[in-house]
Amino acid sequence: MDDLVARDSRVLWHPATHFEDLARLPVTPIVEAQGVWLIAEDGTRILDGIGSWWTSIHGHGHPRIVEAIQQQVARLDHVMFAGFTHRPAVELAEKLIEVAPPGYGKVFFADCGSAAIEVGLKLAFQSHHQRGATERTRFAALNNSYHGETLGALAVSGSDAYRSTFAPLLLKPLYLPVPAFDDHDLEDIGAEQGADSAEADAAVAALTEHADELAALIVEPLVQCAGRMRMMGTGFYRRIVEHAQSLGIVVIADEIAVGFGRTGRLFASEHAAVRPDLLCLSKGLSGGVLPLSAVLVRAGFEDDFKGSPARSFLHSHTFTANPVTCAAGRASLGIFEDEDVIARLPARAAAMAERRREVARRCPAIVHHRQAGMITAFEVAPRAGHPGPKDGRLGLALREAALRRGVLLRPLHDTIYWMPALCMDDDALDRLAQVTIEVVEEVLG
Question: Which segments of 60-196 does DSSP mark as H helices, in order?
């Protein structure tokens, strides 16, 4: 193990990792993963409390996805998608349109979440341009939002932590305020929660004022995941989507993190009964196994791209609709259907909520806690006599303490969150809750 870690340190640059932190918390070699467990090279079992960065939906190594990948790679591993097609892509696209909210007509595949956002932004802009609305050159986004780290996706992210360094290279969106509801369950906040908030009023006013210059509004439905799991009201989301569409502004829903059951429904937008014009998906799309993303496009949207060849959407990825990744995605949707995953989620979410409340009750350092379906967040704060880590690296200290106990948590600074595979059972939830209590007590008292 030490040899592999040393070799890693010589040649690899890990994402979202400070080099000095690796001396304190070295990378952990993983050799196997099954269900909600990661197995380290030394045999240690690590409970995956965050779905390996929000991707694992059915647990690691689901036999149905494994079999689909094995069969497909032996038959057709890859073919360019310009001028060719194949059954896995067609079947996955058909199924996505079938299970999505009604009204989508086309699927554009890409290979990661940021790429899906780039596709959405470019489609929105080009559609206006080709209808003669050339003044619509700006995008609206929410404060505290995150949409990816390619330059286009980063440009519409509303968090300075991600974009400040690159600000000279980025577009300047219209940022809208967003409400935050703490200490609640999504199911308790009501269908209209946030619709009449001051933030909703201000967002609607800004959209109205700038409508003539806005190509699109991009929004993460219900939960701003990288934004420390801030949860907005369902009514707020509905109101800004419907208002933007009434003004001819294309709505792009970033469901990359919140899609595929994370909020208790297959798509988060279902809670608000809205249909965004462009629906961006990734992470759980392949069951969290292979890189794949897709943009679901409102039926008829493609009409703006017909006519002269110059009106084509000249956007492509080498591995667009790779047959193996599409086979994994189709298998994952089959699991949702055949194993009644969505029907079983209320019971799983209730079990998580019971443990969330117990954790909050036992930890005075938790100042807020909230939940949307299978996404739970605890906001912590230092208390008198318990200042927290001297170097200020609160999130790192919490992660280190959890990993020593065999649980993968990756807090967003002062916010510990759970986003496990949807199949996590009661015993694993108990372990997740107990370790969270121990971690908060160790780091913050």
Answer: 63-75, 87-99, 113-130, 151-155, 160-163
Bridge partners (DSSP) of residue 33 are 38
Q: How far apart are the first and last CA of the chain?
A: 33
Give the pair of three-digit tokens for residue 373: 């379906």
Contact of 183 with 368, CB cutoff 8 Å:
yes
Would you call 78 exposed, middle or buried from its count of C-beta atoms within 10 A (0-12, 13-18, 19+)? middle
CB 238 within 8 A of CB 273: yes
Q: Are 269 and 101 in contact (CB under 8 A)?
A: yes
**HSE-up of residue 396 (Cα within 13 Å, Cβ side):** 17
pTM: 0.96
Distances (CA, A) of 273 to 4, 244, 293, 375, 427: 50, 15, 23, 20, 34
Residue 90 has a CB neighbour count (10 Å cut-off) of: 14
Tokens of 124: 């929105």
269 half-sphere exposure, CB direction, 13 A CA radius:
25
Read off the pLDDT of residues 267-291 as tens digits, 9 standing for 90 and up: 999 999 999 999 999 999 999 999 9
Give the helix, strand, coil percentages of the chain, each rounded to 5.
Answer: 45, 20, 40
φ/ψ region of 300 (left if φ > 0, alpha if ψ in -120 to 50, else beta) reads left
Distance CA 336, CA 188 (A): 25
Q: Count how many Cα atoms sit within 13 Å of the Cα of residue 317 in the half-sphere of its side chain.
A: 20
Q: Are 397 and 9 in contact (CB under 8 A)?
A: no
Per-residue pLDDT band for 372 (boundaries 50, 70, 90) equals very high
The two three-digit tokens of residue 354, written as one number:
């019971």
Q: What is the pLDDT of residues 189-234, one digit of tens each?
A: 455 788 889 999 999 999 999 999 999 999 999 999 999 999 998 9
Q: How far is 167 from 160, CA to CA, in rounded Å? A: 9
